[in-house]
Amino acid sequence: MVEGHALRRVSNPRPDPADPIIDIPSTPPAKQQPLLQSAATSTSSSAATTSGFILSWYFSNIGVLLLNKYLLSIYGYRFPIFLTAIHMLSCSLYSFAAVRWLRLVQPQCISSQRQFMKIAFLSSIFCLSVVCGNTSLRYIPVSFNQAIGATTPFFTAAFALLITFRTEPAMVYISLLPVVLGIVVASNSEPLFHPFGFMVCLASTAGRALKSVVQGLLLTSEAEKLNSMNLLLYMAPIAATILFPLSLWYEPGVVNVTLANVQADPKFGLLLLANGTVAYLVNLTNFLVTRHTSALTLQVLGNAKAAVAAFVSVLIFKNPVTTTGVVGFGITVSGVVLYSEAKKRSKVSSSS
């Protein structure tokens, strides 16, 4: 009896408190394993989708710049207003298809005549900005155009102060000093500097900043807020309605010249179609990147886009650049990065 009792104790010993306890993870049941695999696949698929949108955004932004420069400067199609009107017509048609037919976003309606007048006012500012930007490409290279465009934060802060009387922390304004200094350095050393091209490019940059400030000021109520795709759906037809008559008045003979170019060179018609399509893709991919990442990510990507577009344009069009000009562009981009960081910190401190 004693032996049997001893054997029973050895066969099922009690754990010694001094012994270490090893935690062995349990193997998930067979039914859960496919769920884990599908989650990993979904994550990688989402990352691939976001990367695809970012690449598309880069290609469309740089592509429309290069196409505009080729048509307006290299090809000799000297009608920037009519070209912008084609952009707006393309955006109108593609936006209608994307929002009303494909339902890429939930359609939003204009709720009042007052809201329509606000959108019409934004369209006028939008026309000014895009026409001036396209006009500048007739006179200055894409690289210099992008350097000037990088000063948008300076104009945004200035208009916000003048229109809304909203002040920013001192560090935000200090960070804008390199933005201005860089463009001064780049302008003084630009081999292909053109006074009129420089002025209209500045006007384009200021118009872009003014639109963002006015849009935030006008469409503030929940009933009036529109996402960028629906806003483009309403702005583009208004802009086209403004631009086509303006082009016929300010650019006489544009229709005859355009038709003659298409008949003489069918590739020209394809270039116009591609130009209008890519112009819409800029807005579409802008919306998709913002929706899948954030507005801050888009801002960071925009800073890099300016440098990439300038580099690619120099490779394609072979326009001369100077070391001082490159340094000035770098100072401006560095200032924009500092401005973004200062704005982010000011928002964090104000929210806390």
Structure, described:
The protein is mainly alpha-helical. It has helices spanning 2-11, 33-74, 80-101, 113-136, 142-149, 152-164, 170-188, 195-218, 228-250, 254-264, 266-292, 295-317, 323-351. The longest helix has 42 residues, at 33-74. The protein is globular and about 65 Å long. The model is unreliable at 1-15 and 17-27 (pLDDT under 50). One of its GO terms (cellular component) is membrane.
Radius of gyration: 28 Å
> Regions with pLDDT < 50 over 5+ consecutive residues?
1-15, 17-27
- Helix fraction? over 70%
Series of H and E elements: HHHHHHHHHHHHH
Continuous helix count: 13
Number of strands: 0
Q: How large a portion of the residues is in β-strands, by DSSP E?
A: under 5%
**Subunit organisation of the chains:** single chain
Question: How would you sum up the major sheet?
Answer: none
Please give the alpha-carbon distance between the first and last residues: 75 Å
Structural class: mainly alpha
> What is the 3D form?
globular
Q: Residue-averaged pLDDT, rounded? A: 85
